[in-house]
Specification:
With 554 residues, the protein is α+β, with helices and mostly antiparallel strands. It is built from 16 helices and 16 strands. The strands form 4 sheets. Strands 2-1-5-4-3 form a 5-stranded antiparallel β-sheet. A hairpin with a 2-residue loop joins β15 and β16.
């Protein structure tokens, strides 16, 4: 038995807990012994500190009331750049009135929000029957209508306005303080509940006996308790005046409330420490079993999963809802990761297919052959200057097509590509082809998906140049509603109705090898921009309009 005790006592855990208990008890006894001597010395200090804290609390609300006064005056100030209040009161223009009314309502809501939505800010214009207010969260829904009516009634009957002092207002069973300023034919004001003002004081209700609100004639306007009996001789009274309220706050607290029984305090402190130590030990054991243990299991499972064991799963138990949620979330995340791996693989395959179509658009054998034939014909005619121009333009065009490009390129690079493409076609078709480009100057640095404009400009020339006398292709690029709008217009024969209908329905029309560029662009738009990019095509004989809408990316 003795050996077991020695072994048990040699445990570092037992020694640590025993030493902790001994130290805490010793310190507590010393502190409580000294407190009997010093408690009387601290009584005056406690009362003085409590007085200071009350004054700080009242100063806070004085500053809040003054701040609210200043904000109300700033709304109606004639020097204010925001004339919404003036327009609501004076303007006869209905559009300006409604716009100002909405702006003023937002201003009132912002003022209330600045003060934590603990106040109700309102504007009342009687002759226009206008009454707007900020979000009303200071009273229940059933009392809001009565409060609004009482505010209107107060404005119509109150004698004092445009003063810094807030007045007392009774609405239903609730007491309020209200401030109203008048300018022109309107009134702007703010209202706060009595409970909100004294909430901080009422939180000390366990040591506070009575809170009274006295007016300038020392008449009591309000009690925090129904008991209005006289105060005992051992009661401490604190009188505090407020700058923005014509009242004095009187707080009565018994000395016993401020200074509890010393022996009771010592005994309670010792019991609290002992109980706290016991709860601490119990808490450690509880967390080891029901929290730290399961978390360690979760950690081990995550390590196994990260090392490639995708089949690891955690068994849920009924001891803790939170732990069950963690285990279930881990299992669901493991399933989702496996599912996402499959989706990523499918996406990579889809991107490879898109890349294949993308290359088909980049390298068009028949276009390349036509350029070579054109150079051959020019050489026969000894038109060396045109050969030089065509070779230089073609080099720039194919250098861009075959060069490395990311998912996005600058708009100015796309514009240069389209211009080079047109110059090649202009040399080939001469006066049968006209091209116009209109770009907002600040748009050239925008980032867009490559080979969008070239695809549609190429389609316009390919399908229309031999079918009209003079083919006119116009490209207009502008920013509208934070979107890039690329509009490509031509005077060709237009799309066949069946083809246009299939394009607008989102069907694939590239099975026969035609219009593969349009399908490619639409698929790449969906892949890169999701639902933020789109293509609209309208067509009729003599006019086709392609509108590409992309998000603004700089």
């Amino acid at each position: 038995m003795k050996e077991k005790f020695i072994k048990y006592w040699n445990s570092i855990t037992v020694k640590s807990i025993s030493l902790l208990i001994f130290v805490i008890v010793a310190v507590l006894i010393c502190m409580e012994t000294a407190s009997f001597y010093f408690m009387s010395k601290y009584e005056e200090s406690i009362i003085r500190n409590y007085q200071d804290s009350l004054e700080l609390y009242i100063d806070f609300w004085d500053n809040s009331f003054q701040s609210m006064n200043n904000e109300l005056l700033s709304v109606i100030a004639t020097s204010n750049t925001d004339h919404s209040y003036h327009n609501v009161c004076k303007t006869e223009d209905e559009l300006r009135f409604q716009t100002s009314l909405s702006s003023l309502n937002r201003r009132l809501t912002q003022i209330a929000w600045n003060h934590g939505n603990d106040m109700l800010v309102f504007v009342y214009v009687p002759d226009k029957d206008v009454y707007i207010k900020s979000s009303n969260g200071i009273v229940p829904n059933e009392e809001r209508k009565q409060l609004d009516n009482d505010i209107r009634s107060y404005i119509r009957t109150a004698e004092k306005k445009n003063e810094d002092n807030w007045e007392y207002l009774k609405s239903g069973d609730t007491d309020y303080f209200i401030q109203v300023y008048q300018l022109y034919n309107g009134y702007i004001g703010c209202i706060i509940t009595w409970e909100e003002l004294f909430e901080g004081l009422l939180q000390d209700g366990q040591i506070m006996d009575i809170v009274m609100l006295n007016d300038e004639y020392d008449l009591v306007n309000h009690y925090t308790k129904d008991d209005q009996t006289g105060l005992s001789a051992e009661t401490e009274e604190f009188d505090i005046s407020m700058k923005c309220l014509p009242y004095t706050i009187r707080i009565a607290i018994t000395q016993k409330s401020l200074m509890h029984d010393k022996v009771y305090f010592v005994v309670l402190s010792v019991l609290t420490i002992i109980i706290g130590i016991g709860l601490l030990v119990f808490n450690i054991c509880f967390h080891m079993k029901y929290l730290l243990g399961p978390l360690n299991c979760l950690k081990t499972a995550m390590e196994q999963f990260s090392q490639g064991d995708f089949g690891v799963r955690l068994k849920e138990n009924q001891t803790s809802n939170e732990v069950n949620i963690l285990f279930r979330t881990f299992n669901e995340m493991a399933e989702q990761i496996i599912h996402l791996q499959a989706e990523v693989l499918n996406k990579e395959l889809s991107e490879e297919r898109m890349k294949s179509n993308y290359l088909r658009i980049q390298i068009q054998p028949h276009f390349y052959t036509n350029i070579l034939n054109l150079i051959y014909g020019m050489a026969q005619l000894r038109d060396y200057q045109s050969i030089q121009k065509l070779s230089m333009t073609t080099g720039k065009y194919f250098r861009y097509l075959l060069g490395e490009k990311g998912s996005l390129v600058k708009l100015k690079e796309e514009i240069d590509c389209v211009c080079n493409y047109f110059e090649i076609q202009k040399i080939r078709y001469g006066d049968n082809l006209e091209f116009y480009m209109n770009v907002e100057e600040d748009m050239r640095e925008q980032m867009i998906m490559p080979l969008i404009m070239q695809t549609f400009v190429g389609n316009s020339i390919k399908h229309n140049v031999n079918l009209v006398d003079i083919l006119k292709v116009k490209v207009d690029i502008r920013k509208q509603e934070e979107k890039i709008h690329i509009v490509i217009n031509d005077n060709g024969v237009g799309f066949p109705d069946a083809v246009l209908d299939r394009i607008n329905r989102g069907e694939n029309i590239s099975e026969d090898g035609e219009h593969i560029g349009i399908c490619n662009v639409k698929e790449r738009l969906k892949l890169l921009y999701s639902d933020k990019g789109c293509v609209h095509i309208s067509s009729r004989p003599g006019e086709s309009v392609v509108t590409v809408i992309l998000p603004v990316i700089i």
